Amino acid sequence: MTYGLDNYQRFPTRCLLFGWINALLKLEEDFAKMRSPRLVISFVLLALLAFSLAGKSRAARQPERSAPNAIVGALLIAAYHGAETVSDKRSVNEQGKGIIEDIPEKYAARYLNWKREFLSTEAGRNQWAFYQNNPHFTLRISLSRENAEGATTGNYEWNSSGQLVAATITLGMRLDAGYPNPIYFPVMNSLVPTETSYRISGSTLAATKIAHEFGHVNRTAKVDPVMYQLQSQLIPQYNKMFLSNGRNANDPRLTELARRIGGTPVEIWEDREYWGETNAMVYLRDRFTEESTRCPLFTRIRHTVDLYAKGYETRFREFAQAAPSQRICGW
Question: In whole angstroms, what is the distance from residue 247 CA to residue 45 CA?
Answer without folding.
Answer: 22
